[in-house]
Amino acid sequence: MRYLEEFRDADLSLGIASSIKKLATRKWTIMEVCGGQTHTIVSHGLDDLCGPSIDLVHGPGCPVCVTPVATIDEAIAMACLPGVIFCTFGDVIRVPGTDSDLLSARGGGADVRTVYSPLDALEIAKMNPSRQVVFFAVGFETTAPANALAALRAVERGVENFSLLSAMVLVVPAMQALCRSPDNRVQGFLAAGHVCTVTGTAEYEPLAEEHRVPIVVTGFEPVDILSGLHMCVESLEGGKADVRIQYSRTVRPGGNPSARDLMDRAFVRVDREWRGMGIIGASGLDLAPGLASVDARSRFVLAPRESRENTGCISGRILRGNGRPTDCPHFGTLCTPERPLGATMVSSEGACAAYHRYRLHEGEDMP
Amino acid sequence: MCLAVPGRVIEVTCDEPFERTGRVDFGGVVKSVDLTCVPEAGMGDYVIVHVGMALAVLDESEAESVLDALRELHSVMGGEGR
After folding, report:
1. What is the dihedral of CA A251, B50, A263, A290, to 10 degrees?
2. Alpha carbon A85 to chain centroid distance?
3. Which element (helix H / strand E) includes A236?
4. Average pLDDT of A1-7?
5. How much is the average pLDDT of A156-170?
6. In what order do the strands lie in the sheet with A132-139?
7. Pairwise CB contact (< 8 Å): B56 & A252
């Protein structure tokens, strides 16, 4: 068992899709929360395989995409401070701020470095004691334990030139906000498997019950996603609003207690702004008061600035599940991965980037 | 962003709590991975790794039982699909 090829089996995938078609007696709208799942669905055409009864909508589960322009502007301003080495995941570097992006800042002389892990940024800090190293801590609960470990280790090892600029977000409050929105049309969720690997499923039970939505914690390979959809349709057809785990090889109901402990030690929950969704209560993580010494916002005072969204971009609607990339008049014309108007076209997990890569020419021969 | 990849632990290089580290083989590519959050992971175990940190030990019997159930569903459906 190598845990990859087995879950990419084409025959098995087609069989599950066929079973979903038979199971569904009416149209069901199901949201896959995670951008990684969106990518698998679009690249393999899993939505087409399931037939017209399953309306798959893409969710807000791309942390790069939901980071608001004001935070990108803050990151650019911090990267441009003298003596700063600004470390970031590669996905973020081309997300447009109000006037610029981190890549352009690098072109202008800022020391912006892409790293694979926050722990690598901590190593850069140790190797450059005369410089200030800031790590742009973007991510969901999946990434938060590694960010927490970097923060806690910096304090424990006395790495005084390291700090984090937090833009971390939490999935369940966003799902809650979607369910409460008056224009919500989601009837069932595929929850993000790797988030739940850390958190477990306890927080999903009240959400499923309150909004009468079944939630299936699902993996990322084609067999996982189709199997998660099958389980979700089973629940919907049976009138059940339950929480089930499809991705049981990785996710335990209690999550990972060690990872959650790291997060509890390092962070506190705060209200946070999401692109397209506004401010959601207790939906973000910032450094705990005891770790203010590694909080970049405490260390650097930036001049106030005004941030503006690009008004031509509909990524907010797409992130709420109320629009598809192809609904946007700029998709593939004014907005491309090379010259993106919004974050959903930049991130490898953004819905617009996935459609642009796999479906740009779809329907061109249609009347 | 939440991409996480399965790999096999081939060596535990440091076993101190809060510093636990190992070498993990991702289909031929070997990387150093932080094992702080998987104290139970040992040599030969598959772990799921995100941004250099292992988040869970994969459960082979669960993986097999999910695949078995799906294969059964497939055969009940008469191998339909193609």
Report:
1. 170
2. 25
3. helix A222-237
4. 88
5. 97
6. A111-114, A84-88, A132-139, A162-169, A278-287, A267-274
7. yes
To the nearest whole angstrom, how far is the Cα of A187 from the nearest Cα of chain B? Answer: 24
**Across the strands, what pairs with A114?**
A88
| Contact at CB, B62 and A248, closer than 8 angstroms | yes
Q: Are A286 and A327 in contact (CB under 8 A)?
A: no
Task: Give this complex's ipTM.
Answer: 0.93
- Cβ neighbours for B81, distance < 8 A, ≥ 6 positions apart: A11, A13, A14, A15, A17, A18, B74
> Which of A342, A365, A361, A353 is closest to A101 using CA atoms?
A342
- Asked if A293 reaches chain B (Cβ–Cβ under 8 Å), the answer is no
Fill in the amino acid letter for A360.
L
Q: Is A188 helix (H, G, I), strand (E, B) or coil?
A: strand
Nearest to A300 by CA among A152, A138, A132, A127: A132
In the structure encoding, which two tokens stand for residue B27, read together? 């289909």
Give the pLDDT band (50/70/90) at residue B78. Answer: low
Nearest Cα residue in chain B from A262 = B37
Q: In this predicted structure, what is the pLDDT of residue B79?
A: 61
- The pLDDT tens digits for A342-354 are 889 988 789 999 9
The interaxial angle of helices A222-237 and B60-76, nearest 10 deg, is 70
Task: Specify the residue for token string 């996710």.
Answer: A251
- Does B46 touch chain A if contact means CB atoms closer than 8 Å? yes
A114-148, pLDDT tens digit by residue?
999 999 999 999 999 999 999 999 999 999 999 99
Residues of B in contact with A222 (CB under 8 A): none
Does pLDDT of B82 surpass 80? Answer: no
pLDDT reported for residue A367: 43
Give the residue, A151 or A315, on which the prediction is more confident. A151
